[in-house]
Structures are given as C-alpha cells and as structure tokens.
Amino acid sequence: MAGLIIRRFVQMFFLLIGISIIVFFSMHLAPGDPARIIGGPTATDSDIQAIRENLGLNQSLLIQYWNYISGVFQGDLGYSYQSGQSVNEAIVTRFPNTLNLAIASIIVAIVVGVTAGIISALKQNSWLDVFTTTGALAGISIPNFWLGTLLILLFAVNLQWLPAGGLSAPLWTIEGAKQLILPAITLGTGAAALIARMTRSSMLEVVRSDFVRTARAKGVHERVIIMVHCMRNAMIPVITVIGMNFGFLLGGTIIVEQVFAINGVGRLMIDSIADRDFPMVQGAVLLVASLFVVVNLMVDIIYIFIDPRISID
C-alpha cells in the first residue's frame, strides 16, 4: 500500500510539472497583454513598460517559468496581477465553496444514479427500465447552463421555494442548505446519468453470474442476493465512474458557479482568464489537477478493500 501511494505521488509530481508547463505557456501565448489590462486605456507606453518590469513580464518566458515553478516548490503560488492578493489566500478563501458544491453534487449523483441503475437492471425491459434509460440519456445531453437557468426560473422565480444563487450562509443552516440544492442538482445531473448507466450494465452482468444462480437455488432471500452478493461485485466499475466524476466535478464547477453566482475556484478561474491574471489561473489549475490525482488514488485504495483479489500492483 505504501509503495502504491509513493508511486502515485511521484507520478503526480511529473504530471503537475507537465500541466504547469502547458498552462504557463498557453496563457503567455494567448492574445492580450496583462500589463495593458492593468494600466487601463489611459496608460502611456512608459506606464505599460513600468508595469511589465514590475511584474517581470519583460523577462524571457523560460526565466519567468523558472521563477514561477521555484516559488511553487516553496509553497508560494505568486500574487494576483489585478488585486495584488496572494494566490494561496484567494484559493483558500474560495475553495470551500467549490468543495462543498462538488461533494453535494456527487452525493446527488450517487443517490440518484445508483438507485436508478439498480432499478433499471432488476426491471430490465420494463417501463421503469425505459424511463430510467431515457432519463440518463437526457441527463447526459442537457447542458449545465441551460438546466441551471431552468431550475432558477422554476424554483426561485416562479415558485420562490429556493434562492436563485449565492453560497454565503453556513451549510448547517436551513438557508445554507437551500442555497446548495439547485447548484448541486444542476452539477450532479450529468454525473448521475453516467453512474446510472454504468450501474445498470454492471448489475446486469453480475445478476446473470453463476454464483447468483447458486445463491437463489440455495434459497437465499432475494434482498440479500441483491444487497450483499450483487452490489459488492457490481460496484467496482461504478466506483471508477464515481471517482472520475468527482474529480471532474471539482474542475467542472466553472459554469455552475457563474450561473448561480457562487464565489468558488471555478468562477475565480474564469475571471482571472478574462483579466489575463496568469498566477491566479495557474494556481487554480494546479489545485484542480492535484485533487484529481488524489481522488484517483483514493479510488484505487477503495478497490482493494471492496475486492481483496485485486492486486496492489
């Protein structure tokens, strides 16, 4: 187990180096000069040059990258070009909102997706199967921004049951829970559809296995067969989908945070890209990439506990 964790962290090190190189040079090669954006329309050429020197933008890209990655190794992601705020501080302030949204969304996805997939598999070719399969297809096809807008119009504007946006109240309060419902449903719908389809196909394969027929022949109760024998064996590919989707949800909150006006890392990334705030974009991308690798490592560890036959190697 320790060897697996060490190998994964070594892989994560080189992966993050590669990601940092791609993001760094992509941002610097993109159109737009952060010095001109900071200086504004009234800035003179000398003002722009002074800003570039102050930010180190007049140096070569290789020297700029070396200075940046040296700071990253020391735990310093730099400072925002726009506000002067520490990137570390900005991410720490906004990350809890993104994490809470991702956790709530994956809970919605697991509850809806696993339940729908099991029902669909056990009632194969019935109207329930057709309904859940069609719902899964719709969930994958519907864009987040359209679904979020529709939910706001229905539940916030017309019915006035839930707030239209924001995530300011503590989650343990009723108001905080209400603020999280609509964005969690919006973000979790697509993941729920994928989990439902994987659960259905995996359950159908397990239900037809010899050990399930043997258990039925021995007179084991159907509920025990489904919950103990089938679920444990069918959950391994489902856990893969859940883990990957949780990683995608952490990085995919950008649109949902914009729609629901949530001050998270995704919204910070969008604003920083528009402002050509290189350090902020790079810091946010590195955070999301690191979390994605850690989530995949956790999935591999869970595999071993669910099915001891799986080798650590």
UniProtKB/TrEMBL annotation:
Gene Ontology MF term list: nickel cation transmembrane transporter activity
SUPFAM superfamilies, per database record: MetI-like
Native species: Halalkalibacillus sediminis
CDD domains, per database record: TM_PBP2
Subunit structure and binding partners: The complex is composed of two ATP-binding proteins (NikD and NikE), two transmembrane proteins (NikB and NikC) and a solute-binding protein (NikA).
Name assigned to this protein: Nickel import system permease protein NikB
Domain of life: Bacteria
GO cellular component: plasma membrane
Keywords: Cell membrane, Ion transport, Membrane, Nickel, Nickel transport, Transmembrane, Transmembrane helix, Transport
Pfam families per record: BPD_transp_1, BPD_transp_1_N
